[in-house]
Design a protein that fits this description.
Strand content: 25-35%
Shape: globular
Number of domains: 1
Order of helices and strands: EEEEH
Largest sheet: 4 strands, antiparallel
Strand order of the largest sheet: 1-2-3-4
Number of strands: 4
CATH class: Alpha Beta
Helix content: 10-25%
Number of helices: 1
CATH architecture: 2-Layer Sandwich
Distance between the termini: 35 Å
CATH topology: Double Stranded RNA Binding Domain
Structural class: alpha+beta
């Protein structure tokens, strides 16, 4: 999917905060990337490895995390 040289892929539309990143180990990981309301800085949470997590489940987890973030406002 990705390589360390091409380390980030992101979805568009309502799932735009869902990214696939590739670390130096070569493992693709789903990440939720957002601006923290507490510190007003970009933050990232790993939500699962691509090989072990279906895209639909990564999208569900993204929606859950966004609801949590939005409830902190």
């Amino acid at each position: 999917m990705t390589t360390p040289a091409d380390s980030n892929k992101t979805e568009l539309g309502k799932n735009q905060n869902l990214r696939v990143t590739c670390g130096i180990t070569g493992i693709d990981t789903f990440c939720y990337r957002y601006t923290s309301p507490a510190i007003n800085k970009l933050s990232q949470v790993k939500t699962g490895n691509v090989s072990q997590t279906a895209l639909v489940m990564a999208r569900v987890r993204l929606q859950q995390l966004e609801q949590i973030r939005n409830s902190c406002h």
